[in-house]
Each structure stands twice: as C-alpha cells, then as structure tokens.
Amino acid sequence: xxxxxxxxxxxxxxxxxxxxxxxxxxxxxxxxxxxxxxxxxxxxxxxxxxxxxxxxxxxxxxxxxxxxxxxxxxxxxxxxxxxxxxxxxxxxxxxxxxxxxxxxxxxxxxxxxxxxxxxxxxxxxxxxxxxxxxxxxxxxxxxxxxxxxxxxxxxxxxxxxxxxxxxxxxxxxxxxxxxxxxxxxxxxxxxxxxxxxxxxxxxxxxxxxxxxxxxxxxxxxxxxxxxxxxxxxxxxxxxxxxxxxxxxxxxxxxxxxxxxxxxxxxxxxxxxxxxxxxxxxxxxxxxxxxxxxxxxxxxxxxxxxxxxxxxxxxxxxxxxxxxxxxxxxxxxxxxxxxxxxxxxxxxxxxxxxxxxxxxxxxxxxxxxxxxxxxxxxxxxxxxxxxxxxxxx
Length: 392
Known about the structure:
The protein is α+β, with helices and mostly antiparallel strands. 33% of the residues lie in helices and 19% in strands. It contains nine helices and 17 strands.
C-alpha cells in the first residue's frame, strides 16, 4: 500500500478519506489495494485512510489480526452497539469519503459494499462517493513487471491460437474427426507447457455457436468441426505467478482455402469499428485530451450502426484487463453501463466489437496499453479472416 500516494489522490479529489470495509471477502479490491490477506474474515472490519493524518482501524476482537501490518491506530469491538459507536468515532469530522459503492449501480464492478453498510456510514453524517477513480489509480495501473508479464503471456496466447488453427487444418486434411472441445484442449496443452493459467478454458466456437458471445464448449457439449465451417477463438491467459496480468484476444477463421464474402463483409465492418476505437484512443492521448471509456464504445458502435448492424452488437466494446481478465479500470462501455471513468496511463483494456447474426458471429479483440501520451496494441492485429486450409 502506498499511503502517501493515496492521501495525495484523496486531497486532489477533495475527499476526506477512503473507507475500506469487508465481511466474508466480498471486496477483493480492498485486499489488493491494501496489500493484505487475512486468514479468516467472518467478522466486519473497517480501515480508514484520511486525506490528512494517520489511518485508523476498527476490528472485531476475535479477528483482531485482520488488519495486522497496516499502519494506524486500532479500536476493537464485539457487540453491534460497540461496532456502530466505533464506526461513528472512526468517521468523526469527516464529510465526504470514498467507498466501493456506485450510485444506481452504474459501475457494478466497483459497487461491492452492501447498501446497509452505506446506510450506516451515511447515518454518521458522512457523504459516500464512488471510489472507482481511486480504484483505477491504485489497482488497475500496471507496474513494469506486470507489463512484461502481459507481453510474455501474449506470446503464448498467440501461439495457442496458431496451434488451434493448425490442429483444425491437420485434422480436416487427414479426414479425422475433431471438435470444438478437442481444439480447446489443444490450446490448454499449449498453456500448460508454457506456464500460463486462466480462470476459464479458451472458447472455441463453430458456425451458429460463434453468434453466442460467451459460448464455451465442454466434453459433454461440443460441435464437430468440418470443412466450410466458420470458427471463432477467444483466448485469455496469464503467467502463473503472483501479480501477473492477463492477455485476452479473439480471432476468427474459415475452414477452407478462400473465405466466403458473407463472412468477409461482416469482418470488414468489425475491423473498421475496432480500428476506429483504437485510433480515437491514440489520437486523444497524443493530443493530451482526456478521454473516457464511454467515448471509445461510441466510436466503435457508430461504425457498426452506420453499416446497418447496430442491433447485432450486443455487448460493450471492451473491458479493463488486470490480474483478473475483467479488471477494475475503465471499461469501453456506453451500452451495458455508461462508464465515465477516464482512461489513464499504465492501464490496459480490450477493444472487441462484434456482430452476431443468427447463423454466425464475428468479433475481433485486441489489447491496448496506455502511456501518458500514447497507446499501443500489445499483440498481433488480425486484418483478415484466417483461411485455415490455405497453403502454409
């Protein structure tokens, strides 16, 4: 925990403090920002970082070590009356504090504190404001080590994609049966051999399944892959080490030598939408202009709507990427939410517009990493659907 930096950010935001709270590990953000990992959390704890002065703790007597190692004066409670009285003392003199709360649940990824706890804090005469901008600054900004882990993971993820297309090509050419699940396991093998892990296995989808943005095959439910099939691969992973961050991409292919026009036509619209969003981020940062997540979504969505496919783009343009594949920074979203968080330096997010028709869907996903005045796509960029059976 960087106490000095957090307090400086609080002063800049004109906040009196940042109040962390948890019960039964409902708020993973708190543990990451504070850098703690208590063994047991069956009782409520509170930790206040004020804009000025030293932090303060309120912990239950039977779990008094939950905040051990963090600086600050400690008060303990047992009964609910003691807990409420202690919370009032903790917040005495404070007018505005940040919590993992989001008004109207507009940013659900940060809205982790229950309504009753917010009511308790408000009852102490304190205004609760959303901590989303603070969370992004202290949880979503990457260190140099994390940036390098992302690049290393990306090499393996791209290797897995190439391995998947090769496995499909070899099986079809040899007249052997293969399926979505078989190809998924081929990519999982590449991950295991190269030290990558993921919260879920890669997505391999064929034909109508590609029109389901969150489809994933299993041993029990998997479609065979044949010549003339359309294939979508959504692959994400990170190095198996503490603090590592994800790399997350989506590529498409056609099991043939020449890709039919009906697939190419949709891909070209998706590619233009993707590239328009990338260019908006890059030009905005180069010009020193503040840019917000919702604006990036608007840029991609405008292209798809202009081409008549607006009703078939059914998800946000992109998500924050971090130690979780869906991280806690700004999302590229003005569809599922109106994300007003600004895009800041040393954060990473996906740009992945898609068009999902009744019999197939196309998505193209890249990762974008930002600097102070620049942004770059961190891996290979797909420029055309891969003709899987073409000569290599």
